[in-house]
Amino acid sequence: VVISRSIDAGQTVAASLSAPTLFTIAGDLTQMEVDASVAEADVGRLAASMTARVEGVPDDAWSNPSPCEQWTARDLVGHLVEVHGRFQQLVGRSPVEHPAVEDDPAGAWAAVRDQMQADLEDPDKLAQEYDGRLGRSTFGQSVDGFIGFDLVVHGWDLARATGQDDAIDPRDVE
What we know:
The chain is mainly α. The protein has helices at 40-55, 73-90, 105-120, 123-126, 139-162; strands at 2-5, 23-25, 129-132, 135-138.
């Protein structure tokens, strides 16, 4: 998780013999609290970007290591599939049936992405409440506070792991 950045969105970074510090990344996430909010429309846009990256993974790159320690490209997608399922479970819904990530990571991602998008378009599902660790919340508030952020971070991770363009849309780092 990026906790500070030393460059501005869109800024060009010149190659040199020493690596500049572009971002400071948290080492211990157990002590971290994230205060983030992403509009439902942005989650759809971010999911579309993630889909392009998932579909752009060459068949022989799913086992590539990612910037997330001990995770491969396939593990990143597995994490996203799992997290989308956990958000469904917060409000007592079941995650959608999907192919095993090990067999078809793109198919697994597409299934949970489509379920999430349908839920984001349903006002009743958005407003569904649950009691969480931080008190009473709604499905929509929880998705706003985490899913978009997760898609940005792990979209970059997946791109880096599989040799794709790792540029982050400036709207997503402000």
